[in-house]
Amino acid sequence: MKIKINYGAIAVFYIIAIACRFIAVKTNLFTGIVHDYVFILIRGVGPALGAFAAIKLFSLNNPLSLKGIYSNIILPFVVFWLLPALSITTLYYFIYGKFPIVFAFTVLVYGLLEEIGWRGFLQEQLKGLPTLYATAIIAVLWFLWHLNIDLTTSNMIFLGIIFFGSWGIGKIYSKTSSLIAVAGVHSLNNFFVKGVHEKELMLILALLVIWIGFVIIYDRKHKAELALEN
After folding, report:
1. Is 155 within the bounds of a domain?
2. pLDDT by residue (tens digit) across 109-118?
3. DSSP secondary structure string for all residues of 30-92
4. Residue of 127, 103, 120 whose CA lies nearest to 47
5. What terms describe the molecular function in GO for this protein (predicted)?
6. According to DSSP H, which parts of the chain are helical?
């Protein structure tokens, strides 16, 4: 059965996402009146607001699950949020002498706000398309949402990163259906505001190996449980 795509809902979602992003980064509306961490969240809230509005307006049966296939929210929270937050802030402490745990969880919540839109809503709405087409659409819309559309070399590289990121994070979402999980993966690069050097890169690779292994093992376990139930 072919899944019908609700282009009207997608349009509403994206208009709201773009409008919120524009107000946050291209105007001075919030300059000097909110805390820096609050401003980080305001910059990323558009996709979540757009998703909620589109689902409500079009009465969509669109699942938005924090825990996904996991029996409770604790497991993905520990693996995809607590583990990176503690490991990355510990690395920060040894390099910079700071332990920015509040910043770490702000970045994770920012990633969640985006992932509610890009994976939780848009990927769900486009799942009737071939994976390559859906990934390309998400990547282009996600890239344009950042409002950096100059055709520079760095922006074209960023578009490529967005495409492969959309594919990789999309795979995690397909396996877990967990917004907590994809928010953790999404946030990995955003933690390192001072750049990614050797130690940071090693930690990123270690986390990715742990996460991919965890997803594969739990996916097999979940499929086995479903087979027994049937």
Report:
1. yes
2. 999 999 999 9
3. TTTTS-HHHHHHHHH-HHHHHHHHHHHHTT------SSTTSSSSHHHHIIIIIHHHHHHHHHH
4. 120
5. endopeptidase activity
6. 7-26, 36-44, 46-57, 74-77, 83-96, 101-115, 124-125, 131-145, 153-176, 179-187, 198-229
Q: Could you tell me if residue 103 is inside a domain? A: yes
Provide the mean pLDDT of the chain: 92
Q: Report how far residue 228's alpha carbon sits from residue 230's, in angstroms, rounded to the nearest whole number.
A: 5
Rounded Cα gap, residues 81 and 132, in angstroms: 28
DSSP for residue 159: H
Predicted TM-score (pTM) of this structure: 0.93
Rounded Cα distance between 74 and 164, Å, is: 28
The tally of domains found in the chain comes to: 1
In a domain, 23, yes or no: no
The answer to whether residue 46 sits within a structural domain is no
Structure-token pair, residue 213:
């292994």
Tokens 């510990």 correspond to 90
Q: In which domain, by residue range, is 133 found? A: 63-229
